[in-house]
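[agent] plan:
  1. take the single chain provided in the ticket
  2. run structure prediction with default settings
  3. attach structure tokens to the ticket
  4. add a short note for the reviewer (M.T.)
[agent] executing step 1
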Amino acid sequence: MHSPMRALALAFCLVGSAFAADKSYTVAVIPKGTTHEFWKSIHAGAVKAEQELAAKGTKVRLFWKGPLREDDRDQQIQVVENFTARKVSGIVLAPLDSQALVAPVGSAVQSGIPTVVIDSDLKSDKQISFVATDNFKGGQMAGDHLAKLLGGKGNVILLRYQVGSASTEAREAGFLDALSKHAGIKVISSDQHAGATRETAYQASQNLLNRFGKDVNGIFAANETSTIAMTKALRDIGQAGGKVKMLGFDSGTQSVLDLKNGDVQGLVVQDPLKMGYLGVMTVVQHLNGEKVEKRIDTGVTLVTKDNMNDPAVADLLAPPIKKYLKE
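[agent] step 2 finished; step 3 output follows
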């Protein structure tokens, strides 16, 4: 009954139980870029998840690496390929291009590395989950609010972000969908892109205002850098402070200050800390053999001067990054 083989099998079972009780994973978190405040909040959320998991006996070693610029597709592809070659346990990725990152993610998954996509969608079904804002809804919220501010009539500019960025393209589509319900609103420009930096966004903003500055009544910019840049360009020509109604997306320090000062009339705000947190949590749950949702909505909020000091809203505008990141 008590054969050596049986004793050996029992020993293996005990070793397996010990590993199960004290799991250890390596998780690569790959943002679109690393400079904007939005990505620092994502990073803070990932660290929050790492700390909570450690407290529960699951050790996660995080690797945080992304391209410096949000238009460097080749560098982001290389980062994904490098982590795939290193055989990390899982990947959390914010793809800066919905098409260009399909093949690298496919290769990672084929190599046995589960991938959770966050922030911006991927034209693939290989990822185990998509953790993000409902960006179409966020764009609709911006459109509805701008239409309300304009009394349902006027000329509007949409400043787009970047071709291939699924998150911002969804916002732009939602914005135009909301405005299409108002016959008195005319979209006088919707084909210009801000590009990846505040400098390119400022140049695009100046060009648009040089052309349409005397005719425009309302503007929507689809991300943090384009919001800040367009607001500055409006100040430059004396059209800020509500003369031209300005709606933006995301909550960088400068755009929140612009909202407080009355140069921005509304910001549609995500919860990037929650996004980074749930991205890591979801990939670890999958690694633990738990079922995960294919789509996880992290919420979206319209912030105005009237509600920006509400406690829940204030936390979205200024996430506790320093609590989790040592800078």
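[agent] step 4 note for reviewer: Residues 37-55 form the longest helix (19 residues).
[agent] ticket updated
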